């Protein structure tokens, strides 16, 4: 197995982690959460999304959250946008980067944004153009890249075609999203290897969900394929409110624990991650699915790493 010396975590709790939660989190708490993440050492946070408040009520205060969060050198605060209008708002708000998404599954696209894959992609490409013209780097996320919960097949060829169109439009990086936890390690290795072979200079990231308990195993497979960029959320929070089986994200503190015990640097202390995860559990009013925060953050011996 190829093991990187370090990985980069894009923390998505304030946006993807909270977006489907029924309890509306106060604006001040969202600001405090983002500040805690940055204080803990995270240098990239997906803060909010500029979407219809009717569609996603939890994100209705996105602009205010972004305005109130203290900006710091070396820290990227990005905003997810669904279309060109959202991208224009992001440019006006002075964010550090924009994140767009399109589903590789035609059926999932229709369920999520009420448009087929090609029509949705055309709208996303418009959003990319607006952001790029506004001087912002763009993260292009391909949702359902490894499979669909609706029975339609997602092929590697389709994923590569979408990635190519995003790259041609000017995205800075491409993230493969396992939106409903369909992926298995051999598929992760195959998909990532094909994408990096096609675009060797393109930064590639993984956005993994843990619907079937495979997120950490898929993370290790992605590292073996050379990936060093991962999205994750505290306590395994998250999931799309419009996608079947889109349960929580790859758990941040579980990922950090795995890395610490494997000799892989993350730039974030496990104790800080556990503390923030427990704060998130208080915000949403329930126990979170992540394991490490329940076990505690006491140092554990590393098995098989060194002698």
Can you put this structure into words, describing what you see?
The protein has an eight-stranded parallel beta sheet. It starts with 7 loop residues before the first strand and ends in a 12-residue tail after the last helix. Helices cover 42% and strands 14% of the residues. It has twelve helices and eight strands. It is α/β, with parallel strands linked by helices and 307 residues long. The protein has a single domain (8-295), classed as Alpha-Beta Barrel (TIM Barrel), CATH 3.20.20. The chain is globular. The model has no long low-confidence stretch (mean pLDDT 93).
Number of strands: 8
Question: What is the tally of helical segments?
Answer: 12
Radius of gyration: 18 Å
Reading the helices and strands in chain order gives EHHEHEHEHHEHEHEHEHHH
Structural class: alpha/beta
CATH architecture descriptor name: Alpha-Beta Barrel
* Count of the separate structural domains: 1
| Proportion in helices | 40-55%
Q: What about the largest sheet?
A: 8 strands, parallel
Q: How many angstroms does the end-to-end distance come to?
A: 18 Å
Characterize the overall form.
globular
Instruction: Identify the CATH homologous superfamily.
Output: Aldolase class I
CATH class: Alpha Beta
Low-confidence stretches: none
Look at the structure and give the mean pLDDT: 93
Q: Provide the β-strand percentage band.
A: 5-15%
Within the largest sheet, what's the order of strands?
1-8-7-6-5-4-3-2
From the 3D structure, determine the CATH topology: TIM Barrel
